[in-house]
Design a protein that fits this description.
Layout (H helix, E strand, L loop, with lengths): L9 E3 L5 E3 L10 H50 L19
Antiparallel strand pairs: 1-2
């Protein structure tokens, strides 16, 4: 089995990060290369998912504030419209013919 460090599709970045230029449809040399390539892609997907979850975690307090603010606005709007319906909370009585 060829070690990845001895393969021409392996490279190291300036900060020491490891990279691969493998194409699973044309440049795979051994069956183990495909397994490694799949593991790398799976790891990339997990990291992207974790970053998304972290961003959602950071947005959660802001979203909660927005929801509370919107609820207050809706409640205030209901209070402003309360005069339209009289002393009862809700729709006017359809049987009331007093005028």
């Amino acid at each position: 089995m060829i070690q990845c460090t001895n393969c021409e599709h392996h490279f190291r970045g300036p900060a020491g990060q490891i990279g691969f230029n493998c194409d699973p449809f044309s440049t795979i040399k051994e069956p183990e290369c495909l397994v490694k390539w799949q593991l790398i892609k799976l790891d990339m997907m997990v990291r992207a998912y974790q970053a998304t979850v972290e961003m959602y975690r950071r947005f959660a307090p802001l979203q909660e504030k927005i929801f509370k603010h919107m609820q207050r606005e809706l409640d205030e709007q209901d209070e402003l419209d309360h005069w339209k319906y009289g002393p009862d909370e809700g729709d006017p009585d359809p049987d009331d013919h007093s005028g």
